[in-house]
Amino acid sequence: MASRPNARYPNAPLMEPTVMINPRLLAGTGEVKGWEGCLSVPGWRGLVPRYSLIEIEYLDLRGQPQRRQPQDFVARIFQHELDHLNGLVFLDRLESTADLYTEQEYQQLVTHQP
Question: Which candidate, 56, 53, 60, places its Cα nearest to that of 18?
Fold first, then answer.
């Protein structure tokens, strides 16, 4: 898992890549909707509900157990990637098709916000 500012997410935080073996979501609080897209679903973005603060555990490259509490964008990344391990994509998490936008619609929305 990693994060860095890029064309798709210019405000993403800078985070060095972290290898997570057998990651698990232990707890989550503060569910909020936020924008997500996915290279597995090109051309679409959605407002997806995710926890804003989570507690996770995983094994590092040395096989040592790790426990962390990522929040906000990093918590969203973790949940998004964990879904992939479980056979889900962000579309499976939408509350309504009204929360699904084409990339063009998304760009118009975010570039015209006050």
Answer: 60
Task: Indicate if 81 belongs to the active site.
Answer: yes
Q: Are 37 and 45 in contact (CB under 8 A)?
A: yes
Residue 85 and residue 92 in contact, taking contact as beta carbons nearer than 8 Å? no
pTM of this prediction? 0.91
Contacts of 112 (CB under 8 A, 6+ apart): none
Annotated catalytic residue, options 16, 36, 57, 81: 81
pLDDT digits (tens), the chain, 114 positions: 999 988 778 888 999 999 999 999 999 999 999 999 999 999 999 999 999 999 999 999 999 999 999 999 999 999 999 999 999 999 999 999 999 999 999 989 888 765
Dihedral, CA atoms, 87, 93, 96, 100, nearest 10 degrees?
-80
Helices within 1-114 (DSSP H only): 72-85, 103-111
Query: What does CATH list as the number for 21-111?
Result: 3.90.45.10
- The strand pair at 44-59 and 100-102 is best described as antiparallel
